Each structure stands twice: as structure tokens, then as C-alpha cells.
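Posted in: Structural Biology > Protein-Ligand Complexes

Title: Requesting predicted complex, 5-amino-5-deoxy-1-O-phosphono-D-mannitol in pocket

I'd be grateful if someone could produce the C-alpha cells for the following input. Sequence and ligand are given below.
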Amino acid sequence: MCGIVGILGTAPVAESIVEALKRLEYRGYDSAGIATLEGGHLTRRRAEGKLKNLELRLSEAPLEGVIGIGHTRWATHGRPSEANAHPHASDRLAVVHNGIIENFRELREELKGKSYTFTTETDTEVVAHLVSAEMRKGLDPVDAVAAALPRLKGAFALAFLFEGVEDLLIGARQGPPLAVGWGADEMYLGSDALALAPFTDVITYLEDGDWVVLRPGRAEFHDEHGNIVERVKQRTVAGALLVERGNHRHFMAKEIHEQPEVVARTLAHYLDMLQGKVRLPFEFPFDPNALDRITITACGTAYYAALTAKYWFERFARLPVEVDVASEFRYREAPLPERGLMIVVSQSGETADTRASLHYARTQKQHILSVVNVPSSTIARESHIVAPTLAGPEIGVASTKALTCQLAVLACLALAVGRARGKLSAEEEFRLVNELILLPGLMADVLNHEATIEQIAHSFAKVQSVLYLGRGTNYPLALEGALKLKEISYIHAEGYAAGELKHGPIALIDEVMPVVVIAPSDRALEKTVSNVQEVAARGGRIILIGDARAAQEAAVDLSGFVEMPAMAPDFAAIVYALPVQLLAYHAAVFMGKDVDQPRNLAKSVTVE
Ligand code: M6R
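-- Reply #1 --
Done. Output follows.
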């Protein structure tokens, strides 16, 4: 989390740094700051809160420097305040940091002993003083950074700016991503290519452990041992990707509405629509028949996509699947089958726990297949096979279109593995592929019911809690519905497998708490309807998301009904995700919440 930028420019850079920070604000938004050199002297502007506060500060007191660094923060150590906002400075340099310095307490004590005074509650300030201490020994900036980096434990992407040195920026990476951008006359550092897209589409990514010395027109890359290394330049498409809200009030609304299009685009990448077959854009570098099981790991919404995929792989490929949240998986030391398949799912491709799980799986000699939305991400680069989701940049912190595209990819993979293992006939594949092809149209249809969903969502505004129920692939969707509502409206919500209702949560039922039941016409409908009746018998407030048949079979008074088009059940969760997202979105908007940048959250979770 946190976004960092550096520009070694030829004209005043503050405005460009703000522009890049706007593209990084999804990584954190509790404070922001910029440092430049003016007449060789470090000058900083910092502000608590959103980037617009920093812009205001800059309009009152502009910065004129032609070299600078900037930061947008998601607090790890120390509350969000101007004092804790980056860049942090010592007597000879300023630094911006994304990540966590785990040994900062120990370093702080050591540096206090060298008469350094600490003015912030952050872990980052030790980095500034540590490099300064090396410079006081007589080292130049490059050697000082080289001496300081090995002393830092933890995860970091760093950018340094030095007092009196107008032609030098230094970047370093251990964990969180960092990219160098090559401009015509300018050089850039940024947390991702999207941030640098207004300036350049030529990017070099730092490898883990790398650090880089930027001078006008050149970059010298060093590996973790200090050796000078070559790192490739690549052209990115980030500049071509729109990051505008268009006519929508929020990015989240835009991204919800984009789903028919981006799911269609993603499916087209994996399907032969004419033949009604799956056509993967890669070969499996293993024999699917030799697999005993699949392991999948992810965090948050991506984890719910993984949970859904478990049903598909088990049903269509007859393969046992183990799914775990990455923050647990990484420490479990789970035994994995020899040359097994590990699937990691991540929108950003940068999530720290997911990456660590991938690293563990590599030590266990697994084949790593990643389902990622950012093809240039670290997870993509560390995988053996990349199955891209073609959702385009997802800016809203609450994941929406990334989820449905992940589900589309995972469904295709399950069918492909099923076919390769001989567990799925050509006829079954044809039938299922045709169901997939219909999904974008069904999604577009659902979006036409937004007004009804909005009305229902308004009734959430005064409640303390909401329960979501679903069975089969709609159980993970119930979990996702609860997560979505919590993260953007701050209403407490829980998702349950509908069959678990009577094992505890039924005690919560009263006439106030909405119970959202996700009930497509599938083989579990009868059972789900029984659960609806159990809630109704206790005077519960039922919101049914289902087709006309579900409503008819439920035969109870409903507080709300989102009528869904009739569809085959196998991949219905991909379509049913939309009303679940819209309920959360409209509840949060009605309550006046900041849906794109909800409190305490960040889009890319690059720390543990
Ligand atoms: O980038 P990733 O898919 O790895 O991110 C995983 C989670 O952090 C993410 O899905 C998070 O839960 C979202 N805020 C959910 O809306």
C-alpha cells in the first residue's frame, strides 16, 4: 500500500508528481506529500487527508524544483497526520516509502544514540536517518544508500532525493513493486506503470532486492549484492487504459457497469465461440491427468473467486481442490503433492500474502498458475503460467469487475482441465461453453433492474447488520456480498451457507435485519426455499435475489425482490454478483460514504 513517485525532470515537477499520485491514490489516501529541491535545498509540502488537501497546500505555497519525490499514504506505523506524512527527511535527504521496516525500533534506538531526533511515529524515518548517518561517515549518496539497504528488514519500495544533488534519484525495491520510467528528457520512478502512463510507456521493473541510480537519461540497476545488472525495458499498455470515471458518479459504478463488456472480452480470450470449445491461450506445462489435487490461494474478493472455482474444478474436472486465504496458507507449511498445481488469484498481482504463498508453493515445486488482472505485476512475473483477466484497470477499492473476470477465467480453466482429464465430454463442454457465452447478455439485462436494487439498498441505511445466504457457488457470493457491504457502507454483514442458518445465525433473525437470499434456480433451490421459509416463520425481513420461479416457490412475503432473468445454474454466480455489488454500492452512496476510497482501506495490499 502507499504509492510512491519520483521525477528527475527538466521543468518544475510538482504538478506532474500530483498527477501521478492521483493515479496511485487507490493505494492509500490518508495523507500525501511532495519534496523537491529548490536552489539545491530540500523543500516539502505535506497534508493530512486526501490528495486534494495537498493540492490546496501547493496552490498556496507552490514548489518550483525540477527534481522531486511524492507519496500517498496508507498508514502502517503512526496515525494519519501531517507529521507522519511522507516524504520524511533527515539533514541531507528525503525519502518516500511503501512497505514496513520491521527492525525500525532497533534502528531507531541505534540512531538516537547517534544524536538523531525523531519527529514522527513512522518506521520510515529511520531510513532517512540511516542513510544520513552513512553520509556523515563521508560516503556519497549512492554508497550511503548501498550501505544502508542491507540493514533494513521487511518490505519496501523507496525513493530518495538528496540535498544539493540536482541530478540524482535513487530507488530500491524489496517486496512492493517499483518501476523506472524512461521519458524523452526525464526519468521517473513509480509504484506502477499506470502512475507513469501520462509521461512514458517505456518501463523497466525492478526485481526483488534491486536498487537503481537514476541520472538524466540513464539508469544503473544493482541487484541485492550490489552487482550492476541489466534489466529490460518494456513497452506497457497502461497509457492506453482509461482511468476516467466517464459519466459515472464513482469508479465503482463505472466498473460495475463495464462488466458485460469486460467479461465478454475475457471469455473471448479463453473460448472458441464458434466451435463452442475452450481454447486456452497457453499450453499446460504439466499433464492434467497426473494431478491429484489443486491448491488455490488468494485474499479478500479474489479468495471468494477461488472458493467458487473449487465447485467448478471438483464438478467438471473431478479434482479435489484445497482453497485457503493466503495469510493463513503462507504460514501453514501445508504439504503439497509432488509437482502439483497451485493457482493464485489476484487483481493487483501485488498482494503480499498471496505473493508469499506463491513463494512457498515454489519451494514445494508446484506449477504456479496465476489469474491476475495486471499482467506486468510481480505475481504474474513470478508465475509459470499467467491467465490474465482482461478487466482493465480497477480503480474503486471495492473489487467488482475483477471478480467477475476472475470467475470467467477460472470457469474456463475448470472446463479445460476437465476436458484434458477426460472427465468432461465434448457435448458437455459445448453446453457449458454456450452457457458462458450467454453471461454478458444476462449481466446487461440485470443492470436494467438497477432502480429496484437501489430502492432496496436505501432500506439498508438504518440497519445495524445484514445477513447474506447462498448455497453452492452462491455461498462464496454470499460471503462476497457481506464483504462488499461492510467495506463501503460500514454496515456489519455476514455471509453464510444457507444450510448453516439453523446451526446458529437463525438466532439473529428479527423484523429489522435484512436477510439477502441468493437463490438462482439450481438443484439446491428447494433447500434454499426452505431456509427462506424458516426466516419468514420468524418474522424475518427477506430480500430475495432470484428468478420468477424462486419467488413463486418461496411463497412468502418479501421485503424486496430482485427479479433475475432465467438462466442455467452452472455459472449463475457470475451474473448474480451484479445485484450483490449494486446493493452495497447504493446503500453506501445513499449513506453518503466515500465508495471509491472507503476508510482504512487501500486497493493494493503490499504489506502483511
Ligand atoms: O489485488 P488482490 O486481488 O490480490 O486483492 C485482494 C484483496 O485485497 C481485495 O480483493 C480486497 O478484499 C477488496 N477490497 C475487496 O473488494
